[in-house]
Design brief:
- The two termini are 37 Å apart.
- A five-stranded antiparallel β-sheet has the order 1-5-4-3-2.
- A hairpin with a 2-residue loop joins strand 3 and strand 4.
- It has 15 helices and seven strands.
- Among the domains are: 78 residues; 103 residues, Endonuclease III, domain 1 (Orthogonal Bundle).
- It is of the alpha+beta class.
- This is DNA-3-methyladenine glycosylase 2 family protein.
Length: 322
């Protein structure tokens, strides 16, 4: 039986990168809010692979098909200056329009509710980022399965510090690039345990990285087809696939189902109901078919979450004897 995953392209030889890095200037078409567009890529305030300086400069450390790379973005929403270092520098600069929503089509969206219309009007620069890096989006999404956000962010931070590599260029002392597929495969079971990652999630990561570059090759497929192929990996369901494709593909219709809080937030914003399930959420978002993820993002930006009637989910205590 043939594999559902396309074979990755063979990487071309990469010329040495100058000490000063490679540069590119990019002018977006229409308004662009860089921070809000890229914030879904940040895995917590201490993410070793993502940083925003006080002056608004954005840094990203990535594992590209060409190798490790660091990207720095600064300037205004009218003109952005990008500089990149490492073997993946040129790849990052080539992918810059997608990263900043240049491949997104916000004009395809029509608000259907008052709260969505208000959010759409107040956030004209919101774009859907498209990194083109499936594995980079998939692994932290797996780490977020069935645990608190704080636990997942801590696991990501710990694993990158232990098994990643310093980011190329001037950010090397403060940022880390995630391991490649072979590097993830070499993470010992004890390090998963110490990072708070249970055997089920660690095993799912191991199954994914065995595919190596074939996973990143899914970036060339339409989101729906990529989702089906991704879910053929045991341990990856609709929630993880959607969270991944929202980032790797900039998929405007990949709404997250199976989330603990999102249905309640959507339901409260659109109907005032304090409790809502996935089926009701999808029914409410049906008028936005083709743009449901964008609608959900706007709702999250504009509307408060429903009041809580129970304590927040507590972190899972570590199993000291497993």
């Amino acid at each position: 039986m043939s594999s559902p995953f396309p074979r990755p392209r063979t990487a071309a030889a990469v010329p040495p990168v100058a000490v000063g890095g490679l540069t590119r200037t990019w002018t977006p078409q229409g308004p662009l809010d860089v921070r809000r567009t890229l914030m879904p890529l940040r895995r917590g305030p201490a993410d070793p692979a993502f940083r925003i300086d006080r002056d608004g400069t954005v840094w990203r450390a990535s594992r590209t098909p060409e190798g490790a790379g660091t990207l720095r973005l600064r300037g205004t929403s009218a003109q952005l200056e990008a500089e990149a270092w490492g073997p993946g520098a040129q790849w990052l600069l080539d992918a810059l329009p997608g990263l900043l929503g240049g491949l997104d089509d916000p004009a395809a969206f029509t608000p259907r509710h008052r709260v969505v219309h208000a959010a759409h009007r107040r956030n004209p620069g919101l774009r859907l980022t498209r990194t083109g890096l499936v594995l980079e989006a998939l692994i932290p999404s797996i780490l977020e399965q069935k645990v608190t956000t704080a636990e997942a962010y801590e696991a990501w931070r710990t694993l990158l510090h232990q098994h990643g590599e310093p980011a190329p260029g001037p950010a090397g002392r403060r940022m880390r690039v995630m391991p490649d597929a072979r590097g993830w495969a070499r993470v010992p079971s004890w390090d998963w345990h110490c990072a708070g990652v249970d055997d089920k999630r660690a095993s799912t990561v191991m199954r994914a990285v065995r595919l190596g570059g074939r996973l990143d090759a899914l970036a060339s497929l339409p989101a729906r087809e990529a989702s089906v192929r991704m879910q053929s990996i045991p341990g990856i369901g609709p929630w993880t696939a959607a969270e991944t494709l929202q980032r790797s593909h900039g998929a405007p219709d990949e709404v997250t189902v199976g989330d603990l809080h999102l249905p309640h937030h959507i339901g409260f914003a659109l109907t005032g109901a304090r409790r809502c399930d996935d089926a009701t959420m999808l029914e409410l978002l049906a008028p936005y078919a083709g743009q449901r993820h964008r609608a959900a993002r706007l709702i999250l930006l504009a509307s408060p979450s429903p009041p809580r009637h129970a304590p927040r989910l507590a972190p899972n205590p570590p199993n000291r004897h497993s």
